[in-house]
Design a protein that fits this description.
alpha/beta, Nucleotidyltransferase, domain 5, 6-stranded mixed beta sheet, 20% strand, globular, binds adenosine-5'-diphosphate
């Protein structure tokens, strides 16, 4: 039966892929092509518990997709089960409030939004063009990180700057991680009946991190902005700060505004504060062996996450659920605890035993008995959402 979906996440120098079967429930094969554009590129296939790394003779995106096609031709049962291709797209601007069946107009619109995602969107468009060339018969679907947040009200998405920047340049908050938030909202509705009619806060905490308020199933506010730099402190991103710092940094270092922005995107956050690493697990190990810089970075991360949870909560009528997800949200009991310590005034509390013993990769309620809000850990699954959207759009 044709029900497998090839999910592609095409970045500027990497291409992650997976083939999902059984309505997205089963991953048949997955992998990543890395260092594309260099002469040291490779593609890795993970299949039936085995990892196979192939050096790429030509590091183009097309060559990476050609290797996926080659792999499929030596696995004809999987090849013949393919029904479509789903692409993750970072920025859909105001053009897309939901996933879309890809045609040339859709590709052109994705290229139009490239001004706000200059590294990602051109790579996504390229991935689609290459996939059409190499898999000519397969329908393709684009799933946007921004789409879920198109329900924000103008008072949430507009920046308080002269309005002509919005009218003429589309400068506004877009928000990201929308596919993850949509998955969490639907998954929560399965385990907490009625949550799709309630107020939900979600902290998606990974290398990139953001918060979202979901009011009756719709995004009502989120911490990221016109780009993924706004909001929380992240692995290497500063998150929100006084914009005057941009010109102070460029003056202090005698560099351009773009170079100063690069510092806020790539050298700040956990990495900049700890001066050790952008990686939460590495910092937790350093903190446990007594490094105060690691503890300061993690505690700042927690304080700022709590602040942005409280901030987006102003769009809810009640905070019925708080969900932690993403690599850090799912795995760091330390950060979950410190974040919730900052939310005591909102009557949000967790049971420290449940929090510390939460089994990896499972959905679990970790609220304390006295908490007004149900606090959950829910592993996210963006690939599943992309596969399900693809199945639903290609069936129409
Ligand atoms: P991305 O934004 O790249 O998708 P992930 O959601 O994979 O990021 O999250 C990566 C982060 O999760 C890293 O900072 C990593 O250290 C952290 N992480 C993963 N496992 C653990 C763990 N067991 N304890 C603490 N942090 C963890």
């Amino acid at each position: 039966m044709k029900d497998s979906i090839l999910v592609i996440n095409c970045g500027s120098s990497s291409l992650k892929f997976a083939i999902l079967a059984n309505a997205g429930q089963e991953t048949l094969v997955e992998g990543i092509a890395e260092r594309l554009g260099s002469d040291e590129s490779s593609i890795t296939f993970k299949f039936e518990g085995q990892k196979n790394i192939i050096q790429l003779e030509d590091g183009s995106h097309k060559n990476a997709v050609a290797h996926i096609k080659n792999w499929l031709s030596s696995h004809p049962i999987i090849e013949s089960s393919l029904a479509g291709i789903g692409h993750r797209v970072v920025h859909g601007g105001e053009n897309f409030s939901e996933s879309a069946l890809i045609n040339q107009n859709v590709i052109d619109s994705i290229k139009e939004c490239a001004q706000f995602a200059p590294l990602h969107n051109p790579a996504h468009a390229k991935g689609m063009e290459v996939a059409f060339e190499l898999f000519p018969g397969l329908p393709q679907v684009a799933v946007f990180d921004t789409a879920f947040h198109q329900t924000l009200a103008p008072e949430q998405y507009l920046y308080p700057i002269p309005m002509h920047f919005y009218r003429e340049n589309h400068f506004r908050k877009y928000g990201f991680h929308g596919t993850s938030y949509r998955y969490i909202s639907q998954r929560l509705a399965q385990i907490a009946k009625g949550s799709d009619q309630q107020g939900v806060l979600v902290a998606h905490l990974g290398n990139g991190a953001s918060t979202c308020a979901i009011n009756k199933g719709l995004s009502s506010d989120t911490s990221m902005g016109i780009t993924p730099l706004e909001g929380l402190m992240m692995g290497t991103r500063s998150g929100s700060l006084d914009p005057s710092l941009l010109s102070f940094i460029s003056q202090a270092e005698n560099i351009s505004a773009d170079a100063a922005l690069d510092i806020l995107n790539k050298k700040s956050g956990l990495l900049g504060v700890s001066e050790i690493s952008n990686d939460c697990r590495t910092l937790e190990e350093a903190m446990e062996s007594g490094d105060p810089r690691a503890k300061l970075a993690l505690d700042m991360f927690a304080a700022r996450t709590a602040k942005h949870l409280a901030s987006v909560a102003t769009t809810l009528e009640s905070i019925d659920h708080l969900v932690f997800t993403g690599g850090i949200g799912e795995n760091s009991s330390y950060l979950r605890q410190v974040i919730c310590n900052h939310l005591k005034a909102l009557n949000i509390g967790i049971n420290s035993t449940l929090n510390e013993n939460a089994p990896r990769g499972e959905t679990i309620n970790i609220s304390s008995d006295s908490s007004n809000t149900n606090v959950w850990i829910i592993p996210t699954n963006e690939e599943l959402m992309i596969a399900l959207d693809t199945i639903s759009l290609i069936q129409h």
